[in-house]
Amino acid sequence: MDNLSARLSAVVRATREDRRMSAAALAERSGVSRAMIGKIERGDAQPTASLLARLSGALGLTLSELIAQAEGETGRLARRGEQPVWTDPETGYLRRAVSPAGGQLELVEIEMPPGAEVAVPAESYAFIHQQIWVLDGHLRFVEGDDVHELDAGDCLQLGPPRPCVFVNPTERPLRYLVALTKTR
Length: 184
Known about the structure:
The chain is of the alpha+beta class. It has helices at 3-18, 23-30, 34-42, 49-58, 63-71; strands at residues 85-87, 94-97, 105-112, 117-120, 128-136, 138-143, 146-151, 155-157, 164-167, 174-182. 28% of the residues lie in helices and 30% in strands.
């Protein structure tokens, strides 16, 4: 497990405890088993992007906030070499928190390898507004029953919270930017 993954584990536990939430309550809110939460908090399991999205949403944080807390980043300038980067151990999906921590607007750059697929539950979108801007490649974005085929330059504003799946159906890498703000 890399240093960022270890710090993410500690942040999940500390945030849960700060909110006076039991592991059972977090499991119920996130849909992640209590056993898996225990493994993540102890650093025995490296969480996937889908798991982190579920946990951060249940804790009332965006995934960027969770990663920024793990990195301990502060300030108004986020230089590229200092931006928190996290890689999903399951898919190879790479997530870079571009914007400085603590701002009202978050910019996140995503790189998805060919054939990668990441599912995110509706609960992760319950308190955020976001738009997806494809920088390079092709993104198949499944939003509930709607399927959006997006190419470089296309920008999609997400609708009401629904389960979503990000898919790179091609044999080329995909890069896109997510811009998000909290609504509460």
